[in-house]
Each structure stands twice: as structure tokens, then as C-alpha cells.
Design a protein that fits this description.
Aconitase, domain 4, about 20% strand, seven-stranded mixed β-sheet, single chain, alpha/beta, 7 strands
Length: about 160
């Protein structure tokens, strides 16, 4: 199950973060998701993976550009990221996040900095930082259902076993 509402400390990264920065290609020979989680953002900041459990990842524009690898979304999910917030996403990365059960919210958070508490609600469509509420277009009911199921595979398991 994925929470559609939550809060946690912000971990801020830059713009145009491609999937190779999320998880380097040299680690994709294994299918060990926990191993991927240990190496998230290693080429950007070797200590970043250790700060992601329970965090809300805040990125700049064009988050998840580059190679269309599901492993990038999976690695973030397994590292314990609660949600990814950015003004824009590469569309394939956006859907890969939904499909692995990781909420992605299209919203700009000016003035957000590492450690700032961030609260979010995917259903109502808001993010709150420092007492300021930022509104975004909520995820579609279908995407919300996939997320609340824990991802696309769990969603279909539920649907097929009704």
C-alpha cells in the first residue's frame, strides 16, 4: 500500500536529473532492489541514499529525463522516498513512479531547502512547506487507485481476484 498523504523532511536536488544519476547503469546487472536503494544518487552525492528514508524528494524541472528505466523509480521507492515533487517530469519516469507505487506531484516549491518539513496530499492536490500551501492538479482517480494499491502489479492482482 502506498500512502496518498504524508509528510517528511525535504531532500532537494537540482534540475534535469536524469535516470542515470538516480541509479547508475553499472548497478543494473542485478535485480536486487535493496542494492539499488543503497546506490541511489551515488554519482551526484555519495551520502544522499542514507538521507532518503522517509524523505520527500524535491527536484527542479525535468525530473527523470534520460533513459526510460523503471529501475530509477524502483530504486527511489526502495530507498524509502515518500514522494517526488517537481515542476515537471519526463513522462516515462512519471508513469514508472506511479507503476512502482511512488507518488509524483507536479508542483514548484520555491524556497524549499534540505530538511524543511513537507506535507502532501495527492487526493486534494496540495503540498505545504513552511506554512505555505501550494496547489497542484491532483492525480487522476485511476493513478490514485494504482498508488493506493502499491503499484500497477498489485493493482492488477486486486482487480483480477475480485
Amino acid at each position: 500500500m502506498t500512502a496518498l498523504k504524508g509528510s517528511g523532511p525535504a531532500v532537494c536536488i537540482g534540475e534535469d536529473i536524469d535516470t542515470d544519476l538516480v541509479i547508475a547503469g553499472r548497478y543494473l546487472r542485478t535485480k536486487d532492489w535493496n542494492f539499488w536503494a543503497e546506490h541511489v544518487f551515488e554519482d551526484l552525492d555519495p551520502g544522499l541514499a542514507g538521507r532518503l528514508k522517509g524523505a520527500v524528494l524535491v527536484a527542479g524541472k525535468n525530473m527523470g529525463c534520460g533513459s526510460s528505466r523503471e529501475q530509477a523509480a524502483r530504486a527511489l521507492h526502495e530507498a524509502g522516498v515518500q514522494a517526488v515533487i517537481a515542476p515537471t517530469f519526463a513522462r516515462i519516469f512519471f508513469r514508472n513512479c506511479i507503476n512502482v507505487g511512488l507518488p509524483v506531484l507536479e508542483c514548484e516549491l520555491p524556497g524549499c531547502h534540505d530538511g524543511m518539513m513537507v506535507s502532501f496530499d495527492c487526493i486534494e492536490g496540495w503540498v505545504e512547506t513552511g506554512g505555505t500551501r501550494h496547489v497542484f492538479r491532483p492525480l487522476s482517480p485511476g493513478m490514485q487507485e494504482i498508488l493506493s494499491s502499491g503499484g500497477l502489479i498489485e493493482y492488477w492482482k486486486r482487480r483480477l481476484h475480485r
